[in-house]
Amino acid sequence: MAKKILMLTGDFTEDYETMVPFQALEMLGYQVDAVCPDKKAGDIIRTAIHDFEGEQTYSEKRGHNFALTADFDAVNTADYVGLFITGGRSPEYIRLNKRVIEIVQEFFKDNKPVAAICHGPQVLTAANVLKGYKATAYPAVGPDITLAGGEYVEVAATEAVVDKNLVTSPAWPGDTKICAEFVKLLGAKIEI
Fold this sequence. Notes:
single chain, alpha/beta, 6 helices, 28% helix, globular
């Protein structure tokens, strides 16, 4: 039986910050249960493509449709070895869901590996789990990390920050690093 990863996501999640980790983790043999509050397996969420084109913030374009693979209401965190929180716009509203907050708190209570990319740390700040952690995020989320008692670390968009059971990255250019570091936290060994 494949080890299971829970992926918290929602409408207008960032396309690359959802599809790339989902596919990379499945390629390694994990079962990735992608869920969204108020939705079931097979329901579609819309993604957004965020790009860096020289303005003061990212631009946003319509992305792909993404099919959820599990029912949100059926999530039991004991069934999962790790949690991946996608970025984009979805974290700003899924963090308003009481069960999302409980799920995140359960993963931290059990010291299981957690990854959050871009705006994903907004869910962590709402769950009040960042006290004493170093974390990165899209720069506009940095003040939220600080206010939540964490230490915001500014790194290049291609990088990731690991602290204890948590790995974070600022944006989709960091997909490679966040996935590699998350897999290490999961205890997987990849040999070539």
